[in-house]
Design brief:
The protein has 624 residues and is an all-alpha fold. The protein is 72% helix and 2% strand. It is built from 27 helices and four strands. The strands form two sheets. A two-stranded antiparallel sheet has the order 1-2. A two-stranded antiparallel sheet has the order 3-4. The radius of gyration is 24 Å and the shape is globular. Keywords: Membrane, Transmembrane, Transmembrane helix. It is found in: Membrane.
Length: 624
């Protein structure tokens, strides 16, 4: 086997690029003499089936930060990084059942638009600016950087040219065709992404198994890297590179039980429920039922993801540490210099592709990586243009804009976003695990996102001023904790910020009287039922607080104090349910949704139970 790309690899990879580009432009075509409407450009004319919704969600989500970044974290930390994938599958059930139906029923285009309808333009604009900053300076930059890193390792393409290349490629059809082009090319790309990803995993396991097959490889992997097969990381258990030549405690990234009882729920619910470039796929579904089924389908695909993006990282760790460069070179039939080494964790996946995937298949595997990169970038570019156009350009600059003008503005801002990302992305080259960079810096806004959107959806008492001050306090509160407690894991900081924001939103809402209007209470039987649920959540919250206080001293090394987040979440749910049932006044723009909207049929319920059972079993077997 030779190291590097063969002619066949280039042919396969280029063929993939041509097919995707052609498909994106073909789907984007319009009849002669007609222009795309805003609904066609930004919501794919609400034409997506459940399987297209699910495939597009995963294609938008799984990107370079997974193939490169999550594999890098798998190399450094191990299976514990899978918490982001497996708990996301559970979060998707919640989003499908409770969040998305409300958005679809109200005909929402963007998340800031919902905030404007529920609160006011100030809250909407605050979050529009938040999302634009995150998309351009965190998401677009990190994904393009990691994609370029792979191009540099695999093909020798200089980093800056790789960044420009992946951004331009993804921009061509997404800027021209809008969400319709993005979504339908995603259906093809998710097949390539999963198929090519599984091929790389099988070949990596076969290499670890010394050619005796994937099951032998799994056995060797578990034996040789036992410390990498724990889903709960105690303090001081695993040390990982810090990107500056030293090491840091992996507990800082994944603090023990915080991944299941802490603010990772804020990350997952905020990301899957209220993140424009993700939820936009659900908003474009043909119907509420199609959207629900699509998110459930995506949940099962999320369960599969760690086998595609984490296991290869652990395999690279074993191969690097169990064999000398000379032994690997002899097995590969090349030189030790050609095999190379892994200097930073995020180089693990490209190193595997380069060395252990044979010619021809390597082109397919790299096409899978490229599919992940391009599909995510295209979704981010489209959502950036959607938010700017619908939530900033139209209300502030051109209230009477025609559909043609809106589409043109969207295309212009997409180009500007790409140019900014090209400038900023090279600055990430000093990081060891870019995936953790993404999680930490998006974590500055997710507590506020969950509080404002969650309360806006379900609490009749929250007022526009409460939402606005919660939004304003979100980033400063995160920065304050970062400055005053720099050694605190960011997931735990997020939990404390969430608690503070819940207090701010609740106190301001109860103090304000001017926004109140009289509303009809639920009929008595339903009122008793809702109040009963509120008592259950109050009790659950109090019990969680007591247990956390009792156990936190002895089990600080497991991050038990992160469960205060869960206690506050339960109590807040109790407050929301009780006041909705008992208070005959509400904010004048409060949402009172028909309970029928949240009904799900037996197939959905069985599918949801299956996801929860699988996740529960995985945590049971790989807890520690």
């Amino acid at each position: 086997m030779t190291v590097g790309f063969s002619t066949l690899d280039y042919v396969i990879f280029i063929a993939y690029a041509i097919v995707i580009l052609f498909m994106g432009l073909w789907v984007s075509r319009t009849k002669e003499g007609t222009e795309k409407t805003a609904q066609e450009y930004f919501l794919a004319d609400k034409s997506l089936t459940w399987w297209a919704v699910g495939a597009s969600l995963i294609a938008a989500n799984i990107s370079a930060e997974h193939f490169i970044g999550t594999s890098g974290s798998g190399y450094a930390i191990g299976l514990a990084i899978s918490a982001y994938e497996w708990l996301a599958a559970v979060a998707l059930i919640i989003v499908a059942k409770y969040f998305l139906p409300v958005f679809i029923e109200r005909g929402i285009y963007t998340m800031p638009q919902f905030l404007n309808e529920r609160f006011n333009r100030g809250v909407s604009t605050a979050f529009a600016v938040f999302w634009l900053l995150v998309y351009v300076f965190v998401n677009l930059t990190s994904v393009s950087y990691l994609g370029a890193l792979a191009l540099e390792q695999m093909m020798g393409v200089p980093l800056i040219y790789g960044i420009i290349g992946v951004l331009l490629f993804s921009g061509i059809y997404s800027i021209y065709g809008g969400l319709e082009a993005v979504a339908w090319t995603d259906v093809v790309q998710v097949v390539v992404l999963i198929g090519g990803g599984l091929v790389t995993t099988f070949l990596a396991l076969d290499a670890v198994g010394a050619g005796e097959g994937i099951f032998a490889g799994l056995g060797n992997l578990y034996t040789s890297a036992r410390e990498h097969f724990t889903l709960i990381v105690p303090e001081g258990h695993i040390m990982v590179p810090d990107g500056n030549g030293g090491v840091r405690d992996a507990f800082k990234d994944l603090p023990g039980v915080a991944v299941i009882v802490g603010a990772m729920w804020a990350t997952n619910l905020g990301y899957w429920g209220f993140n424009q470039y993700i939820i936009q796929k659900g908003l474009a579904a043909k119907s509420i039922n199609e959207a629900k089924r699509g998110l459930l389908f995506a949940g099962y695909l999320k369960i599969l993801m760690p086998f595609i993006v984490v296991i290869p990282g652990i395999a690279a760790y074993v191969l690097i540490n169990e064999y000398t460069p000379e032994q690997l070179a002899a097995a590969l039939g090349t030189t030790a210099d050609a095999v190379g080494t892994i200097q930073k964790s995020d180089q693990a996946y490209p190193w595997l592709l380069k060395n252990f995937v044979p010619s021809g298949v390597r082109g397919l595997a790299f096409a899978a990586l490229a599919a992940a990169i391009v599909s995510s970038l295209a979704s981010m570019v489209n959502s950036t243009s959607t938010i700017f156009t619908m939530d900033i350009y139209r209300p502030y600059f051109k209230p009477d804009a025609s559909g043609r003008q809106l589409v043109r503005a969207g295309r212009v801002v997409a180009v500007v976003a790409l140019l900014i990302a090209m400038t900023v992305a090279p600055q990430l080259s000093s990081l060891d695990q870019v995936f953790q960079y993404i999680q930490e810096y998006t974590g500055y806004i997710y507590p506020g996102v969950l509080v404002v959107f969650g309360m806006g959806l379900f609490w009749t008492q929250i007022t526009p001023n409460a939402a606005l001050w919660t939004a304003i306090a979100t980033i400063p509160a995160g920065i304050l904790f970062k400055v005053t407690a720099p050694d605190m894991p960011f997931l735990m900081r997020m939990g404390y910020v969430f608690i503070i924001l819940c207090v701010i939103a609740s106190v301001i809402s109860f103090m304000e009287k001017g926004h109140r209007v009289s509303i009809a209470l639920p009929e008595p039987a339903r009122q008793r039922k809702i109040a009963g649920y509120s008592y259950f959540f109050f009790a659950l919250g109090i019990i969680t607080f007591i247990l956390t206080a009792v156990l936190s001293g002895e089990y600080t090394y497991l991050g038990v104090e992160s469960a205060y987040f869960l206690g506050v979440l339960f109590i807040m749910l109790g407050i929301i349910l009780y006041t909705n049932a008992k208070m005959a006044v509400a904010d004048k723009k409060a949402i009172v949704s028909d309970p029928v909207l949240f009904n799900t049929g037996t197939p959905f319920n069985i599918g949801a139970a299956g996801i929860i059972l699988i996740i529960g079993l995985l945590y049971y077997f790989f807890w520690y």
